[in-house]
Amino acid sequence: MLATAKFVGCRWFFVAADDGRTAWGTSIILNIVNRPDFLVNKKLNTQEYSMGMAELWKNSEKLLSEIPVLLKAAENTSYEGRTYTYARGGPGGVLPFREAAEKSWVVLSQVTDIMVEHLLHKVPKGSYERRLALREIEAKMPEVASKHFYDRYGAISNYVRNNQNYYSSMDLEMLRYEVTRLGLYVADVKSVISK
Fold first, then answer.
1. Range of the domain at 147
2. Residue 21 in domain
3. What are the residues facing 13 on neighbouring strands?
4. Could you tell me the CATH number of the domain that includes residue 137?
5. What is the pLDDT of residue 30?
6. Structural domains counted in the chain
């Protein structure tokens, strides 16, 4: 269930500064009663996962299997009854594109966390700590370093995270390419943690 924030109202306010200047502003009041169920399976306000690593792996595989359907839906080049000729996806496919990028980012972060927890027995608190942990793994374990997880994590996360959070360029072919690379990354992580 995905809850949405309900717009309750907008209030104007008047601010008088000490130097005699005045300013007008607004405050938007939102009613957030139901918190959304986020794709990332972490406990609210913590960096701990709400499920074990085995269930987290199954969840990651499930999310990864949903991405191709979203990429297909992102090919929609129609909008309000008109058809556009975008070679790399159209305006009707923006939301599936963003959702595919979001799910790709969640899969990448969860799978990396599973590997770090398996090899170093700690769960990273964010992207920066994941990168530090991947550097540590590559320094300590040469057989794992040959798979270049640090470089691959950085390269994949750059595109999928930017398109999920910051709405950079919408290039459907590039996202397909990154999702293919993500599938190879997941397979390599599986081979490392199954040993």
1. 53-193
2. no
3. 25
4. 1.20.120
5. 43
6. 1
Distance CA 2, CA 8 (A): 19
**Does a structural domain hold residue 19?**
no
How many Å from the N-terminal Cα to the C-terminal Cα in the chain?
37
Q: At a CB cut-off of 8 Å and minimum separation 6, what does 145 contact?
A: 137, 138, 139
For 84-140, how does the pLDDT look when each residue is reduced to its tens digit (9 = 90+)?
Answer: 655 455 566 777 888 888 899 999 999 999 999 999 999 898 889 999 999 999 999
Span 71-94, pLDDT tens digits? 888 877 666 666 665 545 556 677
Task: Tell me whether residue 121 is exposed, middle or buried, using C-beta atoms within 10 angstroms of its C-beta: 0 to 12, 13 to 18, 19 or more.
Answer: exposed
31, part of any domain: no
Can you tell me the distance from the alpha carbon of 180 to that of 187, in angstroms, rounded to the nearest whole number? 11
For tokens 């996202």, the residue is 175
Q: Which two tokens stand for residue 137?
A: 């793994």
Which tokens in the block code for residue 87? Answer: 């070679």
Work out the mean pLDDT of the chain and round it to a whole number. 77
What's residue 7's pLDDT?
42
Pick from 148, 157, 147, 150: which is nearest to 179 by CA? 157
pLDDT band at 164 (very low <50, low <70, confident <90, very high): low
Asked if the structure places residue 2 within a domain, the reply is no
DSSP 8-state assignment for residue 91: G
Q: Look at the pTM and tell me if it is higher than 0.85.
A: no
